[in-house]
Fold this protein.
Amino acid sequence: MPCAAPVCVKNSVPHRAVRRAGLAARFAFSNRLCAAVFRAAHVFAFLFPLAVLGASSLPRTLLLDVAVAPDALVAVGERGGVYRSTDGGASWAKSQSGVHATLTAVAFADDGRTGWAVGHDAVILATTDAGRSWRVAYRGESPDESFLDVCVLDQTTIIAVGAYGLYLESKDGGATWNSRRILDDDYHLNRITLADDGTLYLAGEHGTLLSSHDRGATWDGIHTPYDGSFYGTLPLPDGSLLAYGLRGRIYRSEDQGEDWIAVANDQRVLIACALRLRSGAIVLAGQSRAFFISHDDGRSFAAWAAPLTTGVSELVEAADGTLLAFGETGVTRLPAPPAQP
């Protein structure tokens, strides 16, 4: 199906079987740490046994995403794992998801009770009680169809994206789902982000960045100076936009992606997630030991020696200023990042 709006074609796509083999190799590292190396961990998810979790324990299993609801944190990961915390991440309880597929992303509507989780085997789960219980809302037929992210615009409008250009949307609270092709090529769509002004951004393979100003009805291609994979974007309050991905690549735009400036970074590591702190500082993380911090709205970054040696897929700032890092070893609480020098 042709694109709803013009999109730049970067490179031809290798044969699907070859790409699948390459994808499996990346999955062995785990995804959002590669929204393919982290969030689509087809291999890694089965290499490590699922930890036994008590009500007061920290999950020590691969976790790929977390959602901040008004009264709880809800994290998802390998083997259908869903974990809830109602005390800011001090303790966690496991919820029954009813599936064994690795869950890669989770998001909630503004009511804090209605949410969706997505993952491998093209599964979408729904909850109406803030993640305490879940039901299957959609399940695809092809094992190639893996969701990598989900965005909840409101209680009725949901967009799920994933591998090979997978794009599914519902406008009736998950009662029905519509599949669309928004790219001419089957590039992986790694992360979808909703900015404060309502703009949606999609980041993906082969330098793919897209934006939508009409809640996903149409998508416009954003020209980028990089032909590798982007794993996410971070819209900033002043209207600037950060894009990050493989090989330590960080780009900053001050005009909605019309022009880009490469942000200096000599560490060629995978960057999987970004978080703007309440102080205004920005933290990037991903591959093992890869943490970066900016105090100038992303114009420059310095390495941060955080006390964690494993990969990170997502970050959350706690009420006391510490960070909760979700990734290869479950949940780890990190000290507050250094203040501006």
Notes: The chain has one helix and 27 strands. Residues 1-56 have pLDDT under 50 and may be disordered. The first strand starts at residue 63 and ends at 69. The domain at 44-269 is CATH 2.130.10.10 (Methylamine Dehydrogenase; Chain H).
